[in-house]
Amino acid sequence: MTRALSERSVALVDVLDRLLEGGVVLTGDLTLAIADVELVRISLRALICPVEADRDSENDLGRRP
Amino acid sequence: MTAPRYVYAIGRALDPADLAGLVGIDGAEVHRIAHRDLVAVVSAAPADEDELRARLERLDELAVVAEAHHAVVAAVATQTAVVPFRLATIYRDEHRVSELLHQRYEEFAALLDRLTGTVEVGVKLYVEERAPAPAAPSTSGRAYLQQLSQRHRRRDEKWQHAAAAVERVDSSLGALALDRSRHRPQSAQLSGAAGDNVLNAAYLVPTGRLTEFTDLAERLAQDEPALRLEFTGPWAPYSFTEPEHGDQS
C-alpha cells in the first residue's frame, strides 16, 4: 500500500500533511471534527510508524480513545 | 434545506459557473453559499456520520476522501484566492454555513486579503543514506566497540552538518517568502522517498516570485551536497490559515 501512495501524481503523504495539520480548523456541527481528526492522525501515525507502534503496544494503537 | 454540508474552502468572487461540473466527496456536486463577497465552497456531506468516521480510520478510504477534498480546493484555487479548510469540516445545513460566514466575516476577509496572490510551495530536504562501509570482521569485543563508537561519531557529525545546512536553506528561503511553516518530517515508509527527510517545510510565496523562489532553492541545494531537494506544489495555502488571534472553539 505504501508503494501505491508514493506513486500518485500528488503524493498522498503531502496532501495529508496539509489536510490533517493545515487548513482552517472549525468544530463544525457534527461531532466528527477536530477531536476525531486527531484520532485519525493518531491511527495514521500508528500506520506510518509501525516500528514505534510495535514498541509501544502489540497492536490496536489506533483504537485507543 | 437540512442536509449536512461539507465545507472545502472559503473564497471570493466565485460565480456558480466557476464550480460547474466540480464534484467533491463521494461524487457530490460542489456548490457555493455566499455571504457578501465571501463564498463557502461546499457539497452534500456523507449522510452517515459514524460511517464517515470509520472510513477516515482506514488509510485507503482516507486517501479517497482526502483526494476528493484536495481536488476541489485545487480546482477553486486556480480561479480565486482560497482559505482551505481542514479535512472533514461538516455543518448541519446550509444555514449554519451562512452563519459561519456572517459571524467570522472579518477573520475570513483578513485571511483572504493576506493570501490573495500567493501560493504555497512545499520544500523537502533529504539526507541521502549511504550504505555503511562493510565492517571488518571483529576480532575482539574491544575492536567491535571501537567500530561501533566510530560509526556513531560519523553519524552524529553527519546529522550536525545536515542540521546546519537545513537552517541555512530554510532561513534564505524564509527571507524571500512571505511566511513559512514546518510539517513533521515524513517517514520514508509512507513517502517511499530515499534518504532521511530532514526538512518538510512550506513557504508562502507571491505568485509572481514563484520561479525566483524555486531557482533560489535549487541554487541553495547545490551548495549543500549533503542534501537532496524536492519541491511539492504549488498548493493552495493550507499551511497558512492560522488566524492572527489563535485558536477558536
The H/E string of chain A reads HHHH
CATH architecture of the largest domain in chain B: 2-Layer Sandwich
Radius of gyration of chain B: 23 Å
| CATH C-level name of the largest domain in chain B | Alpha Beta
Are there runs of chain A of 5+ residues with pLDDT below 50, and where?
Answer: 1-8, 49-65
Oligomer: heterodimer
Sequence-ordered SSE layout with sheet pairings:
The complex is a heterodimer of chains A (65) and B (249).
Chain A: H1 2-7, H2 12-21, H3 34-48, H4 50-56
Chain B: E1 5-12, E2 30-35, E3 38-44, H1 49-56, H2 59-77, E4 82-84, E5 90-91, H3 94-103, H4 105-115, E6 118-127, H5 141-176, E7 179-182, H6 188-191, E8 196-206, H7 210-222, E9 227-235
Antiparallel strand pairs in B: 1-3, 1-4, 1-5, 2-3, 6-8, 6-9, 7-8
Walk me through this protein's architecture.
The complex is a heterodimer of chains A (65) and B (249). Chain A is mainly α. Chain A has a domain at 25-65. Chain A contains four helices and no strands. The two termini of chain A are 26 Å apart. In chain A, 35% of the residues are buried. Chain B has 249 residues and is α+β, with helices and mostly antiparallel strands. Chain B has two domains: 5-115; 118-240, 2-Layer Sandwich (Alpha-Beta Plaits). In chain B, 41% of the residues lie in helices and 24% in strands. Chain B has seven helices and nine strands, in the order E-E-E-H-H-E-E-H-H-E-H-E-H-E-H-E. In chain B, strands 1, 2, 3, 4 and 5 form a five-stranded antiparallel sheet that branches. The model of chain B is unreliable at 244-249 (pLDDT under 50). At the A-B interface, helix 1, helix 2 and helix 3 of A face helix 1, helix 2, strand 5 and helix 6 of B.
